[in-house]
Amino acid sequence: MSLRVAILISGGGSNMLALVRSMTGDHPARPVLVASNDPGAAGLARAAELGVPTAAVDHRPFRGDRAAFEAALSEKLDAARPDILCLAGFMRILTPGFVAGWEGRMLNIHPSLLPLYPGLDTHARALAAGDTEAGCTVHEVTAALDDGPLLGQARVPVVPDDTPADLAARVLTMEHRLYPAVLRRFASGDRSPVHLS
User: Fold this and answer.
1) Domain boundary residue among 42, 71, 102?
2) Do 83 and 127 belong together in one domain?
3) The domain spanning residue 25 has which CATH number?
4) DSSP string, the chain
5) Is there a single domain that holds both residue 86 and residue 119?
6) Known binding residues
7) Distance CA 93, CA 89 (A)
8) Which of 36, 149, 152, 166 could make an S-S bridge to 182, C-beta 3.0–4.6 Å?
9) Beta partners for 31?
10) Residues classed as catalytic
11) pLDDT 10s per residue in the chain (197 long)?
12) What is the Cα–Cα distance from 30 to 119, expressed in whole angstroms?
């Protein structure tokens, strides 16, 4: 029996698309919901085109009350009954209370080789530090931002004259390979890290 996967997005959902398209055939999981904090997120229409149910909970009416936003989001998630929750470009920081309810079942992808460069502007920070390689990480979500057990990393070289946009594009290509590989392994019950280069 396939595990049920919900995916949270905030924008175009390119990582969501990579995940959804990977969950076919003998995959141990299947997508049951794509939800967003932005009703206008382009990824919602893309998910619907692939036949995945969608939902939106606009975060703006809940400004200053993250718990109320998360309660509304949880109603949508509870209705879909997911076993695994994947964050794929979901740009809201979740409270420890919400995260605790998904302990060991929530994954996130981050565009750096964690523990390097948690938070934003990862590519510019890697270039400013003179790093010779960059990449992305899939990890279990904990209450600490961009922390938690590492489930996979993919590495790319930093090349001369790279801009943050150049590096971001190269890393994103690897994100689309890494996240599906990690989800397949994770849904099979294997939490050993995936390494790609």
Assistant:
1) 102
2) no
3) 3.40.50.170
4) -PEEEEEEESSS-HHHHHHHHHS-TT-SEEEEEEEES-TT-HHHHHHHHTT--EEE--SGGGTT-HHHHHHHHHHHHHHH--SEEEESS--SPPPHHHHHHTTTTEEEEESS-TTSS-SS-HHHHHHHTT-SEEEEEEEE--SSTT-S-EEEEEEEE--TT--HHHHHHHHHHHHHHHHHHHHHHHHTT--SPEEE-
5) no
6) 13-15, 66, 91-94, 108
7) 11
8) 152
9) 5
10) 110
11) 799 999 999 999 999 999 999 999 999 999 999 999 999 999 999 999 999 999 999 999 999 899 999 999 999 999 999 999 999 999 999 999 999 999 999 999 999 999 999 999 999 999 999 999 999 999 999 999 899 999 999 999 999 999 999 999 999 999 999 999 999 999 999 999 999 98
12) 29
| Single-letter amino acid code for the residue at 30 | R
Tokens of 12: 């175009």
Distance CA 20, CA 116 (A): 28
Residue written as token pair 């996979």: 152
